[in-house]
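Let's practice the habit of predicting before peeking. Look at the sequence and jot down your guess about where helices and strands might fall. Then scroll down.
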Amino acid sequence: MKFYSLFLLFFPALFFAQTYPETKKTPESITLHDTTFTDSYTWLENMRSPEVIEWVNEQNKTTKSHLNTVVNDVFPLPTLQKYERQTRFRIPHKKRDYYYSLFLYYDNELQTASLGYRKKLDGPIIDLVNPNFFYSGKTVNIIGYEPSVNSKTLAYKLMIDGSDRHEIRFVTLRGKKSNEVITNAKFSGMAWKGDDGIFYSKNSNSRQFEIDSTYQVYYHKIGTDVAEDKVIFDASKFKGQVSYFTSKDGLRLFLAAASKDEKEVDFYYADLTKDKFELKKFLDGVTPDFDVSGYREGKIYYSSKDSNWGDIRSFNPDNPAIKRIIVPQYYNQLLESSYFFENRILCKYRDTNGSYFMLFDYNGKFIKKIQAQKGLEVKLASGEYFDKDVFFYVTSYTIPPILFTLNIETGNYSRYVSKTFDKTTAPFPVDYFEVKTGTYTSRDGTEVPITIVHKKGLNLDGNNPTLLKAYGGFGVVNTPAYDNGLIYFLEKGGVYAYAGIRGGGEKGVEWHRKGAGKNKINTLNDFIDAAKFLIAEGYTNPNRLGITGGSQGGLLIGSALVQHPELFKVAIPKVGVYDMAKFHRYTIGRFHYDEYGNPENKDDYFAMMSYSPYHNIKEDVNYPTTLIITSDNDDRVPPVHSYKFAARLQNRTAQTNPIYLKTLLDSGHYGVTTNEEDKLKDEAEFYSFLLHHLMK
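Done guessing? Here is the structure:
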């Protein structure tokens, strides 16, 4: 009897134990700021070594085997394919004179999208570029395009295997392709000087994952050898980020250069009508919150962060001391973005009821408010400076985009219906789901926004499978977006919640600052308290609660699952930053000192170590079932973060819940970009995994 009892006692652990590929330990003592810790997985930092590649492939085999098993229980793919056919939405993008769109040849779901244009909105599409024939064995996506001022030439940008190092190529609107190819363009604009050429940024790294070196802005004249392109601005000495744009007429260049620590930004402009243009500094050492957003008739327009909710001001770059407020801030109405037209400024605002547009003239006179029903999101789809009519659409978590036209002079708008563009059809009636917006109270008394979505009439008995998501960084404001995978989850009885935690921009500039730098711990605390709120309010319980987030959101999820494993059943962090002691040693990590701090600074280091996911893993804790998702070609948040995080979570005797690592091959920070079919398969795997483990 004793033997039988012991068998029953140990059988569950044996049954649920997961067999992983062997992961060696190479303990290395690391001392920072008079403290020492052991890192056993530094060998995984050599991401391109045969040893690491073999380990990644073995991890993928284990994960794929499990995902193939869970689809026997939950198989969303056919349903997602059906929903996708109903809700596919391709927006006409007006750029300069014509309407551009990405499309699939013969609706071939196994190809990446090609680029074409229409001379008239309802006219036939004229093929320009099919990226599927550029490189054999590589995934090539068109991720941006800009016509010259008079639409003579189109510059377009190619993303290869998901990397942030892009190619820029050129084609005439007659379809004649150029042999001029700009390689290693990173975080680059394609700012036209009339029809003559473009300004762009170029990366000079010799190794993909080393500290970023995109410090130089070049000018390329159409019809010349790329090798002869001239550097027009060089930030190598102070190693700062550089951004730029040209005016709508292509006659002025504006450039912003940040200091290495990102605490100050200098602004320059140049008159491009001169044969030899020179950059002239017009603002010196302003805060990085200063956001230049437009230029018109000799005046620069910007959004001042001096006002928490955002306003629009203007000044002449030749006399920047004299500034004028055009559109004042509106308390509790967040100015999310602004768009400048010939005679109008279109502002997008957000409040507790959703988002809306406000139309002003350049004297700040209010023209009209454009607002959809409560809970619906409005988004500008397409519009050029001289246009009188522009496109916008309304959408929500549960309603696919509905397209409208807006007269920019009067503010009048109407539903757009055309045989040329497909009309979306929602899989369910508009009242089938319920969307709640409100707040919960974080531990320090702060009221935090939260949105909760579920089927109307769902029995909220505390046992519902629930997915909690957040981002909480860089002042980013979450905007509701329709997603067929989420619709599938909701239809299966799931509850979805998005928490607008500190670090984001949902409540203005101060909301971001209170979750950045040494205040970043507030971001984690708000998220944990959102989970406790959902449990206390009877939506779910720790055995039915899943969490997910990507990039900064991946860091958040990684931190939450190791700090409070008792609250969650499933965690799915994506392309996250997990090793805060070394994040600055890779690619663009050091550009995020303003968000996280600098590990070389003692106070910053200890603040980051309080939430660093990798360093807070305990040997004696069984953490929730976890699927860590990364991409092998992600040169924004390198996959080493996920590799080390997965290795340490797996390689402990206390861990009986499974920990899976899914590395997307030949992919970058945005995940699967190969084709429509693969994107749906990837999303199906996410919801298969989530529902299978939440319902066990």
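How did you do? The CA atoms of residues 218 and 232 lie 5 Å apart.
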